[in-house]
Amino acid sequence: MGQLNPQFTDDTVIVTGGASGIGREVAQQFGGAGATVLVADLREEPKNGGTPTHEAIEEDGGTAEFVETDVSDRDDIAALVEAAHDYGGLDVMVNNAGMFIGGSILDLEPEEFERIHSVNAKGIYFGTQVAANDMLKREDPGAIINTASISSHYAQFEQVQYDSTKGAVRMITRGAALELAETGIRVNAVAPGQIATELDEGWSEEATQKAANDELVKRVPLGRAGTPEDVGPAYLYLASEQASYVTGELLFVDGGWQVF
Ligand code: NAI
């Protein structure tokens, strides 16, 4: 089969949550495609150890920098986007950082609700806002890609607090795409399904058992959990010129999880 091979030489890409998991892979794929990558995260080290993402990109011959960032803090996002000016300015903003807190709606603590919404929803809203303003100020419209989820559409057990953030990501993406279309800035989202990363925490024993039994994976028509490598190319496609007529889209990369 043929292969799409978008190139991002001369482009500067920010990937939030780029230290681990999906963000790490996305950052590395952009780096491999020639982009200068700013890896933004709370921490440099991947959650499961190993070489920090920006160093891995540089070891492979690319250009990358780590920028310590808490996406729940708008000032941090502003400093991050400003840092891209050292490389000619931001072309592609990947708002990917996210967290998971499982647990029943009957007893979730208010601080936990606020924390997950601050990172997953507020972080994406302000990531989009700051990136768009910077692109417009420089008269250099680019692409914004947010990480949504199958949870943007579908409720899952003991996940109200998480699912509601991902529902917000879907509508931030669509609303921003509508408003920014006339400026030339495209805003899209990737909606991964069950991807093997270090994301999950806080589920009850019952929910953990369900996950351990692979109940979520059992209903994937393609028959397996996904990997970050499966998801990365969707970001490159949405950022590329091949997607120049695509905006407001939420692209499922889920092995068919949501088709029934
Ligand atoms: P992960 O836990 O492996 O990576 C998330 C990264 O985000 C970590 O490096 C973490 O330090 C960083 N991060 C967390 N809070 C942050 C903050 N306030 N500021 C900056 N960085 C922060 O998780 P994964 O799976 O790679 O998740 C990435 C995105 O994909 C998230 O938005 C998640 O909701 C989404 N997603 C994941 C799925 C999965 O099955 N793993 C499925 C659908 C969506």
Automatic annotation (TrEMBL):
UniProt entry keywords in alphabetical sequence: NAD, Oxidoreductase
Keyword Oxidoreductase in annotation: yes
SMART domains listed in its UniProt record: PKS_KR (SM00822)
A Pfam family of this chain: adh_short_C2
Domain Ketoreductase intervals: 11-206
Alphabetized InterPro entries for the sequence: KR_dom, NAD(P)-bd_dom_sf, SDR_fam
GO MF assignments: oxidoreductase activity
Domain of life assignment: Archaea
Family affiliation: Belongs to the short-chain dehydrogenases/reductases (SDR) family.
Protein name as it appears in the record: Glucose 1-dehydrogenase 2
Organism the protein comes from: Halobellus salinus
